[in-house]
Amino acid sequence: MRYDTTTFAGAGGQAIQCDVLTVHTLIIGAGAAGLKCADMLHAYGVRDVAIVVDRLGNGTSNNSGSDKQTYYKIGLFGGEPDSPMDFARSLFQGGMMHGDLAYIEALGSAPAFFDLCKLGVPFPHNAYGAYVGYKTDHDPRQRATSAGPKTSKFMFEKLLAQVRQAGTPVLDQHEAIALLTDGDGEARRVVGALCLNKADHYRANYGLTVVNAENVVMATGGPGELYKISVWPHGQIGSHGLALAAGAAANNLTELQFGLASLGFRWNLSGTYQQVIPDYYSTAADGVSERRYFLHDYFADMPAMAGAIFLKGYQWPFHAARLQHGGSSLVDIAVHREISAGRRVFMDFMRNPTPGEGMAPFAIADLSDEARRYLERSGALQATPYARLQHMNQQSIDLYAEHGVDLREPLEVAVCAQHCNGGISGSTWWESNLKHLVVIGELCGTHGVRPGGSALNSGQVGATRAAQRIANVYRETPMAPAACVAKCAGQISAQWHELHRYLSPGAEALEPGAVRREIQTRMSAEGAFIRSLAGAKQALVDARALYARICSEGFSCQSPRQLPQAVENKWLALTSVAFLQAIVSYIEQGGGSRGAYMVLDGKGALTVDSKRGRELRHREENASKRQEILELQLQPGTLCDFAVRVDKVRPLPNDDSWYETTWAQWNRGEVFKG
Description:
By secondary structure, the protein is α+β, with helices and mostly antiparallel strands.
């Protein structure tokens, strides 16, 4: 990595000097995917690599999990047969996923998993050395494994240690705020990025730093701050808007996951937290008065109610297919409606489900065969949910205790945005339509409806593929610093002037915090797991208007310290437009309820049926849409108008490769150029 400086004209002709960093490959983001890419680049001989991150350790990998955070990989124990193609079919069958990407993720599964084992991620194996698995949602086999509640945290820690041992520089407190590009049309490519060095905010350049790079890898995670009700770590932005503004295409932005999670300490309440069958109740806004056991309104008897709670462990994400016949997603609907009415919802691990009028008391012996056998086989027949949780998964209790939460006290919960399966479009090498821009991890939109835990595998496989592509195809040296600055002078100057304008705002300038609250409120209301065409269309109109106001009026920042948040909110506003455009387009084209959301429609064929009666009429799934992927791209010359096109899902490949020809192609380096 090389340091230089450049000078450009600021306000009133003032000479503004800023740093120029030149590096072969820049990685934006330091979660499990970004660190894996850095590690693999080093292994493949690419040593001129730098990582920039807004706050090291603040992302999803290091701060998210569940009772047993799942890593989904190919089956590696016992006599049950598995194969890469079988694995690919499981990824592919939910729809909205290209078959070649599913096959690649399957093929890369075992190497990526064993790399993590070698680094010391404590995945359990039995006395034979078999990594025993379990089933997760949408998984026909026992492929899932876990290192406990902190699987991704262990991945982050071990990969960070590896990257540091290799000597790869990690530039903390450096927030990427724009991509630098060159060329037009299909020849358009990325040549670097602009960052804000937060330690230099007091300087005349506000910390603006030019990074001149031959390749840029984006690994900034999901759009957690897009939603008011979210379990993503606070401050998780995702950088979708930054990439979209540069011309990157996105796909599957309709596809997210939502599930029950705690609010004070943000954590997913899947698996054992539900399988011990805690009590649920709601209160008035004060959190104490007017206690009500609201699930009584939805379930006629105790076995049905307790069974639905139990199944939330296996079937944790909200799913449109689990709304009928007393399915487990009825619990999500009930929780959501209580909160929408201004009430607060709690789980109580010290009490078994409270019986309603005419209900028999809770008894394990009265549960469905599936739930009863699970608890019996686990030896979890203790008197209270807390005692059962202690027996089955003490780590899940300890995790909350580490954050000052005692699960012997009621735990406030909501149905939260949790994961984004869509994102920036990528090739089979995870390269975007902008050449030399590679997108990995949750930011990359590889999945539609997927098995739980497959995102961790996807991030590791995608990071490896990206490193292979760069090491074998994109080894050219970066431009000379002066040449980069000359090509990008207009982009650099325009970015500084925008920052300067935020610090000398007009009367109509927007307050950054208010803008974020507006975005989050709108997305949680119209872009979450209950959607409608009318609501999404109005939300899209409002989101476009907000982004236009940001572009015309700017933000009102009292200090340079506020500039990073202001830029984040600009890109978050553009991200919200893209997501809402995808939702509107999908519904207008006949899309129905699928995966993690229901589409309300007065003419829909389905209703949510419960003890309350028939409610929430909605569309059934349009299965033909599984074979389509919606792709969006910002139309040149517009602020926030996205062109939407439908791509047909590429089928699973018929891989009948012959060794001798593959060997020859490998030796010529051809396998990396497809």
